[in-house]
Amino acid sequence: MSTNWQGSERKSRAPISLTDQQPEDSTPGSAAVIHAVPVAQATVEPQQQPVAAAVDHSEVPLVSGRRSATVLRKENVNDQLPPATGWQAFLRAASLGLISPKVGAAELARRADLSAIQRVYSRPMQIMVAQPLGGVGKTMCSIGLGSTFGIHSGQQTLVWDNNEMMGTAGVRTNANDSISTVWDLLNVLESFETVTARKGELSYYTRHQGNNQFSVLVADEDADRMKSIGADEFNRIHTVVSRFYDTIIVDTGNNTRSANWLASIEVTDQLVIPTTLKRNSVVSALRMIEQLESMSERIGNPHYKDLVANAVVLVTQGGGAKVSAAEQAELRENLASAVRILIDIPYDGALDTGSIIDWQLVADPARRAFERASAEIAAGLLATDLKHAPSATTTNR
């Protein structure tokens, strides 16, 4: 039976109103339905009768309540899958499956993080990696997040080097014989601003990272070019890439007052701040935070302040002299008071070569840290999506 019922049938099957209703066709010969009315009620004046609000049955959903959704609430079977790591996996393999211990807490936590990374949102989401100080790992973190989302989300992921001049994402990622940069895309961008544009054509202007499963839109690499990316260029590119990518990770330059940096923060859904636990790096991050908070107060738009409150700080391990534990604790506390969470990224030689980062060479501790960071970022994206979604949804996400 079709559930696309038309007006009269839908109305006849709608929930029964508590008030008496006249038949639609009250002809003299039609049968009347007699309702027994207690004497006590018959003596009450009409104006004293409680009047129920009129119900437009055409708007009443045919199915109400979420009992079935509660039964189906379990979203995955992470705790039912056999262990794949740790002594639990070894014991299960050694006993040929005769002994199958429960999955360990660490593996369960990892599975939960990967499930979070796989969330789907109502629109493309932008993550902005920003810090005015150079050398603290902005590009490294952008590539780490791009690899993690690319490998585990199953969705289209783009790392976009939004340096207004020449960035380093092209140095830290595999070119695959491509020499295309953001300016090459800008020169033909008009052809992608039509409904006939295709992803395969856009891919020519990005650099796909193979097994890392994300693409890179690199910044300018021409030292002779005396142009810089502005707000108009950023907005046009953002409109195009948002049509073809689900997750856009924007690596930024050091100038938080440049037009393209400000244009990027306008459309950002999640702010990520890389820093080392050194005084100059933390001060630089806090000044950017203060700038964003001041922008909200001055313009009256809470967007920038909300980005700060929801920000994820990635604590990277910079080189040079070590800072005392007491000073590190103080700096960590100053950051923690302004943002949502701090996550430590352990040192990994594959991330510190100054050359191409191949995620297949990154050791498990750093991989796990980026998974944890990506899961927290996904939680922030979900909160933003639910807050600004065009309409309420009943999807369990």
Automatic annotation (TrEMBL):
GO terms for cellular component: cytoplasmic side of plasma membrane; cytosol. Residues 18-29 have a biased composition (Polar residues). This is AAA domain-containing protein. GO terms for biological process: negative regulation of cell division. The keyword ATP-binding applies. The keyword Secreted does not apply. Residues 1-29 are annotated as: Disordered. InterPro entries: P-loop_NTPase, ParA/MinD_ATPase. It comes from Paenarthrobacter aurescens (strain TC1). Keywords: ATP-binding, Nucleotide-binding, Plasmid. GO terms for molecular function: ATP binding; ATP hydrolysis activity.
